[in-house]
Amino acid sequence: MIDMNEEQVIYFVRHGQSEANKHGIIQGHAEFPLSKLGQMQAKLAADWFVETKLNEIFSSDLSRARFTAEAIGHRQNNGRLHVHSEPLVREVGLGPLEGMTREQMADQFPEMKSEALLTSGIDGTETIEAITLRCEKLTEKLTDLPSGNIAVVSHGGFISIYLMYLIIGSGWHKANRPFVIGNTGITKVVFTNGTPKIHYTNNQQHLQTEGDLTSSTVVY
């Protein structure tokens, strides 16, 4: 009997440590390059994927994700697997908070002591409605792809939100987000006929192969 199931295996990968991560700076859409540690993490993530034949790689259009994605692509199909830029998976826009440390943010925006960073509602930050629309469009795009293995290189905040969206839909912002996503943490989601199953989150085993190269995680 022929199995007619359509299955997309999606590996969500957070980018390697950036200079902003290293120094405790809020990024959002702001551009920061990978640190030296981040570049090593990207290489190790690429090594991990060698045993997995990827059909496609999509990346946030922010350079810290793009560098990580290109490191992965370089180890696939003799270095010929093209990285597709995908703005749908860029980090949540944080407007006036971008470029600040947490301490600076607390001084200038005292209300942030009790508000979640990604859903504060501060003027100039990305709205819940806009983030939800991105999640909807991303799901449509992923489930329309042919069956296969797909890597999506994104950001800790967006990945944690997208996982909540897969679980409870457009009400994702009303619930606690329990996911912690470290630099180059790998999360596996399988869509079968459009229905998602989360197999694991934040796998960082690849960062243990040359000593412990994990870096601090940011709780969003």
Automatic annotation (TrEMBL):
SMART domains: PGAM. SUPFAM superfamilies: Phosphoglycerate mutase-like (SSF53254). One of its GO terms (molecular function) is fructose-2,6-bisphosphate 2-phosphatase activity. This is Phosphoglycerate mutase. Pfam families: His_Phos_1. PANTHER family: FRUCTOSE-2,6-BISPHOSPHATASE TIGAR. GO terms for cellular component: cytosol. Substrate binds at residues 14-21, 64. GO terms for biological process: negative regulation of glycolytic process; regulation of pentose-phosphate shunt. The chain crosses the membrane at residues 150-168. It comes from the Bacteria. The gene is gpmB. The lineage of its organism: Bacteria, Bacillati, Bacillota, Bacilli, Bacillales. Keywords: Hydrolase, Membrane, Transmembrane, Transmembrane helix. It comes from Salisediminibacterium beveridgei. The active site is at 15 (tele-phosphohistidine intermediate), 91 (proton donor/acceptor).
